[in-house]
Amino acid sequence: MTTRALEMRNIRKRFGSTEIIRGVNLSVDERERHAVIGPNGAGKSTLFNLVSGLMKPDAGSISLGGNDITGMPPWLINRRGLSRSFQVSNIFHRMSVWESVRAGVLWSAGERYAFWRDADNAREVSARTDRILADFDLSDRRDAPAGILTYAEQRALEIAITVAGGANVILLDEPTAGMSRAETDRAVALIRRVSEGRTLMIVEHDMSVVFGLADRISVLVYGEIVASGPPAEIRNNPKVREAYLGQEVH
Amino acid sequence: MTGALSMRGALARPVGRGLVTRCGAGVAVAALLVVLPLMFRSGTALTMMSLMGISIVFALSYNMLFGQTGLLSFGHAVYFGLGAYFAVHCMNAVITGGFPVPLPVIPLTGGLGGLAFAIAFGWVSTKRSGTAFAMISLGLAELVGSSVLILRSFFGGEEGVTTDRTRLPRLLGVSFGQQIEVYYLIAAWCLLCMFLMYRFTRTPLGCMCNAVRDNAERVQFVGYNPQVVRFLAFCVSGFFAGVAGGLAAIHFEIANSAYFSATQSGNVLLATFIGGSGYFFGPVIGAVLVSYLQVMLSDVTEIWQLYFGLLFIAMVVFAPQGIAGLLMMHRPLWNKGGLPKVAAAYAIALAPALVMLTGVALVIEMTYRLAVKAADGPDMTFFTIALTADHFAAWLTAGTLVVGGFVLFRLAWPVVVAAWASGESRKEHVP
After folding, report:
1. Is the pTM of this model over 0.80?
2. Which residue of B has its CA nearest to A103?
3. What is the ipTM of this complex?
4. Which CATH architecture has domain B2-322?
5. Count of H helices and E strands in chain A?
6. Residue A148: which of B2, B215, B229 has the nearest Cβ?
7. Range(s) for CATH 1.10.3470 in chain B?
8. Does B10 contact chain A (CB < 8 Å)?
9. In chain B, % of residues over pLDDT 70
């Protein structure tokens, strides 16, 4: 039996009187590419926020590689090997591209809060930063402030920062949102490459991306998982068809 | 404008060339600090340069919070003042106890005092950022300011605590009785602190300070706790503010409540902002300029603070990147060799601008004379020119200067714009 990279057991989250996540059970195997789909407002981003520690679940438990991470702050979860990207680019606007990616590398390279070492002299950190910039086709923009990059470049930087720390579990929140067809194809190839040998969980609206990338797909509707399985099974699931035709599920 | 956005930006690479430039800059600053008192020998100049050195350390420590970590503090003088009190008490303890501690070590005790209180107060205030942090800093400044009159045994009440720097054990026979000796002591500490604070910007923590400034939320998802980053930056900043306070205590041989004043906290903010918080050398320019203006402007006019305020407003409105930002804006032009032409255009626009500003100053001075100093009569001098403030001709002159200067300036401005455009379209030199 393979180890679970990520396991959510009966998690719930309520905002005011509305319960957004209503008892989600979801597990992602190691080295699996797992997509979460569902209509707008289904709670996909909230689910990511709960797993990555931005929000705490009201009930249930979340474990990462068999260890309980429920209610932990984001930085502790990140140090245990889970890293996420954001739907709206969430980058360091005044820092250069190179500095931004390095910020993603520093902790995992053991630099921590050091204020007695020169970060520019950390060869391993610089080498890793250079490699990631090359992977993401950002080497030419290394000295540009992140804030002046084009939209597609900012999306690439967003993912570059996410994977820079070498986390085992990567969560990508709508990585191709707002991209052209050509940009999307490039992004998918890139995501496939950087998630090689790692566990990937992805929220995505573009069905060609989802079916082209995912090993398994879970469908989230009104805070509940209505189906979970390989792409072929999901494609033919009547409940999923119902949800995507815009009809009431209940 | 790209360079103007980043704290270090394009300077980061290539490393080899940057290293030579940085070492060169360090040696140049050191040489300047040694040579300056040989060029300006008067007592006033020495005092002013000593104050500038203190201000540079203080402003750089402030920018560690403001420019580097994005924390707006209204109470940075707290750590400056506590550093000064610690230094004075240490000096007095050394004198009475006969400990073998020479004066040049004393600023370190000021720094440790600043650090100790930065740890205590920072623990509370850095839990928040933004407006909440600014408000807490204001509250803490009030708290410490009012305790001066309550904890008299430590703060010495309104008179403060005095000391005598010449009574400490001598190092190499230097008594520090003369201002030139104090100047070199301050210059040495200023150089050391500049070096250390510059190094700080390049450390992993220094890099993460920038990240926290830009986006504290995202920092959480690359393994860092932004609260810890803010707290550590606050402590380091408090240490250097304390060193600056220790230097001030040595210079003035007294520590009193003025060190904690809101003016002190405000001045360091103004100096940092006017100099340019986005660059390491910005606060250095700001500290030098503000110290100079405080001494020289107050000699020229009684209402120098008004002009100081106008300067600040003008900077906020027209050049929020500060003087350093204005200078760095010209870097691409410099690279393309278009700077001489632009400089010539500036000279053309500067003349009417000065005429206009003279007119504005004349209006302000005459208004002040008539409204506030009415008892002294309307006869006054303006830049050695005698005039009568309630005379129509004087106001007509002032009005002509303002309006005429403004019109000519607007006419001259297109020359500057054209010079910029032609400079920017030049091909870049191959380095």
Report:
1. yes
2. B208
3. 0.94
4. Orthogonal Bundle (1.10)
5. 9, 10
6. B2
7. 2-322
8. yes
9. 95
